[in-house]
Amino acid sequence: MNRAESIKIGEKSMTLKNLIELYRLCRSAQHQLYICTKKTMCKIKDLLELEMFRMSNREKECLIVIEGKEAETLIRKAKSIVYQTNVQ
Questions:
Q1: The CATH fold of domain 3-87
Q2: Which of 31, 41, 59, 83 has CB atoms 3.0–4.6 Å from 68's, for a disulfide?
Q3: What is residue 42's three-state secondary structure?
Q4: Are the C-beta atoms of residues 49 and 57 closer than 8 Å to each other?
Q5: Alpha-carbon distances of 5 from 20, 21, 46, 83, rounded to whole Å
Q6: Is the pLDDT of residue 87 over 60?
Q7: CA of residue 27 relative to chain centroid, distance
Q8: Span 36-45, average pLDDT
Q9: Cα separation of 59 and 21, whole Å?
Q10: Dist. CA 26–CA 20, nearest whole Å
C-alpha cells in the first residue's frame, strides 16, 4: 500500500543540487515526487520538469510530497538533505 509523506522547504533549500538529490532518491526507490506551492502542484516526471518548476517558482517555500511504500523513510532522508544545506 502506498503512503504519502511531505516536508516543507524554504527557498534557500530549493537549490538545484538538493532537488536533484531528492529526485534521484525517489527514482531509485520507484516513488513519485510532487512539488506543491500555493498556486501549483506538479508531479515531477523527469529532471527537465524539475528544473523548469524550480526556475519558474517565485514562492518563499514549497511542499515536497513523496508517494510510495517507503515514503516515511525517504522523507527522513530528504530532511537530512534539506537540513544539511541550512546548517552550512
A1: Histidine-containing Protein; Chain: A; (3.30.1340)
A2: 31
A3: strand
A4: no
A5: 18, 17, 20, 17
A6: no
A7: 12
A8: 91
A9: 21
A10: 10
pLDDT recorded at residue 85: 53
Under the phi-then-psi rule, with left for phi > 0, alpha for psi from -120 to 50, and beta for the rest, what region is 83?
Answer: alpha
What pLDDT does 45 receive?
93
Across the range 61-77, mean pLDDT stands at 94
Determine the Cα angle at 84 with ends 82 and 55, to 5°.
40
Q: What is the Cα gyration radius of the chain?
A: 12
Please give the pLDDT value at position 82. Answer: 84
Nearest to 10 by CA among 72, 69, 64: 64
On whether the CB atoms of residues 66 and 33 are closer than 8 A, the answer is yes
